[in-house]
Amino acid sequence: MTAPTKLLHSSPVPPAAPAGEELHTPVIAWFEAHARDLPWRRPEAGAWGVMVSEFMLQQTPVSRVLPVYEQWLARWPRPADLAEEAPGEAVRAWGRLGYPRRALRLHGAAVAIAERHGGDVPADHAQLLALPGIGEYTAAAVASFAYGQRHAVLDTNVRRVFARAVSGVQYPPNATTAAERRLARMLLPEDERTAARWAAASMELGALVCTAKNEDCHRCPLAAQCAWRLAGKPEHDGPPRRGQTYAGTDRQVRGKLLAVLREAHAPVPQAALDRVWHEPVQRARALDGLVADGLVEPLPDGLYRLPLS
After folding, report:
1. Secondary structure of residue 53 in the 3-state scheme
2. Which residues are catalytic?
């Protein structure tokens, strides 16, 4: 296989970069031995369980997702069950997972699945991509993990594994690039079943071993051929990596406002929302943002509630 001339950060692939075939077997074998037993990986989860997990796991660790996932599937075991509820109930059940617009998007996808596909999550990648709130990553992940199809599934963990093992750099770019997508397609096994296992296995490797910090090369099935390790683990020299800040941000204020509304089963007066944050300008900005995002519905007389439609 001929390596492309440019990949991550416009750096050439190191001469010793392993070919796809050299990566698949050890990583999949490692996955078979070390994969976590997660509920969305069990056969009974079905495509809907996979889809729910993919929405919840975006920027959220597994430990926080597990209890909410279990409660969600117990309440809404099929897309049609969720579609029958008001979108505000999805926001309420989302709890403190963060980025609550994901709840609205998942509700919108459930409504579309009920209306367009008879209540069954479609297997066709194009139909998945046409659902509201579903982008390229989620469509590929559902098609691969739920239906065993051959798609390049590029999340942060996979991107980091590819950056290190193949491109010889410590971290991938801040945003997914066209070069990364080409690399992912180049590394994708031809066999559909193997490709689906590769997608899951490379993701798990990045989550458990090739982590952002304190990578455990002694446990890595690719240690002997990892381009970054063989190059002496050069320090990241690309753009600064984005940090996740929360305290004092509008995100924190939005979360506090939503917490009041989630706990209330009747419209909430402005005064109750005013008590959650001391700074009035930031509080008003956060509330306006929630209304603009469709997460909060304003009512007459200064009342607010989670959305009903």
Report:
1. helix
2. 54
